[in-house]
Amino acid sequence: MRIAVTGASGLIGSHLIESLSADGHEIRRLVRRPPERVDEVRWDPAAGTVDTAGLAGTEVVVHLAGAGIGDRRWTAARKKELVDSRVRGTDVIARAVASLDTPPKVLVCGSAIGFYGDTGDSAADEDSPAGEGFLPELVEEWEAAGERAREAGIRTVHARTGLVVASSGGAWGRLFPIFKAGLGGRLGSGRQYWSFIALHDEIAALRHLIDTEELSGPVNLTAPEPLTNREVTAAMGRVLHRPTLATVPAPVLRIALGEFAGDVLGSQRVRPKRLLGSGFRFTYPGIDEAIEAALRP
């Protein structure tokens, strides 16, 4: 198949392309700069343009581009950048694929479990309502921006991804050096739930979304059983053979991270109801094995 991918240089995009290419699929990478290779297609989300000629013959589009949620403090300008990069970017892609004479069969859009907000000790799945706050509002707008593709009859899936366990890149990539140095520990009370997924399973799940015709709308990409931050901390110490005695008090996190600290300290106990119901099987469902997998070359 010919498959187009935005966010191709990111953690998930680069590994997805590697997996798809290994199976012989033809990849089109959407880039913001002038194309330098035959497999690159120009798009400019700020200007609202896509070189649709470069998407001709594409059967699948995977849209993963967007500014990192936790990369910087949430100033007013940064929050606008987060909204624009996701909402506007998704709208531009949805309109572009809908305009093609032969649209792709499926559009898989990156999304986030931030949709559910702070769920406390209660489990959430795709039937649960949106939470309250900046992230839930952002995700609602983000997913709604794909409406033009749905209206054009394109199967549109929103991959609500949790915390991806990877040795580099993403939030977990910033944790590994700290824990390897023996400085890791729980955040706040440690009782908040973290919904994680091994990088290998994230890629396999995205490919499952591409191939499984009955799936559309939101699908949670998280391991079957979320764990508390305290449990995750203990697992990191176990696997890395390092102490985990340090703690980062909630007030310190709020000073360091600003408004984003509320989401770090918040609890998201999210389960992948639709993914499991469609027959997907995890290779690394447990936290220890997910961490061990991330450490392999």
Q: Number of DSSP strands?
A: 16
CATH level-two architecture: 3-Layer(aba) Sandwich
| Outline type | globular
Q: How confident is the prediction overall: mean pLDDT?
A: 93
If strands are numbered along the chain, what order do they take across the biggest sheet? 4-3-2-1-5-6-8-13
SSE pattern, N- to C-terminal: EHEEEEHEEHHEEHEEEHEEHEHHEHH
pLDDT under 50 segments (min length 5)?
none
What percent strand? 15-25%
Q: How big is the Rg?
A: 19 Å
CATH class descriptor name: Alpha Beta
Q: CATH topology, what is it called?
A: Rossmann fold
Number of helical elements: 11
Classify the helix fraction into a percent range. Answer: 25-40%
Structural class: alpha/beta
Q: In whole angstroms, how far apart are the ends?
A: 28 Å
Describe this structure in words.
With 297 residues, the chain is α/β, with parallel strands linked by helices. It has one domain: NAD(P)-binding Rossmann-like Domain (Rossmann fold, 3-Layer(aba) Sandwich). Helix content is 39%, strand content 21%. It has 11 helices and 16 strands. It has helices at residues 11-22, 76-99, 134-144, 147-151, 170-180, 199-211, 229-240, 250-257, 261-265, 273-277, 287-295, and strands at residues 2-6, 26-31, 40-44, 49-50, 60-63, 106-112, 123-124, 155-161, 163-165, 185-187, 193-194, 196-198, 217-221, 227-228, 246-248, 269-270. The strands form 5 sheets. Strands 4-3-2-1-5-6-8-13 form an 8-stranded mixed sheet, with helices on both faces. Strands 7-16 form a two-stranded parallel ribbon. Strands 9-12 form a two-stranded parallel sheet. α1 (11-22) links the parallel β1 and β2 (26-31). α1 packs across α6 (199-211) and α7 (229-240) crosses α11. The chain is globular and about 60 Å long. The two termini are 28 Å apart. The model has no long low-confidence stretch (mean pLDDT 93).
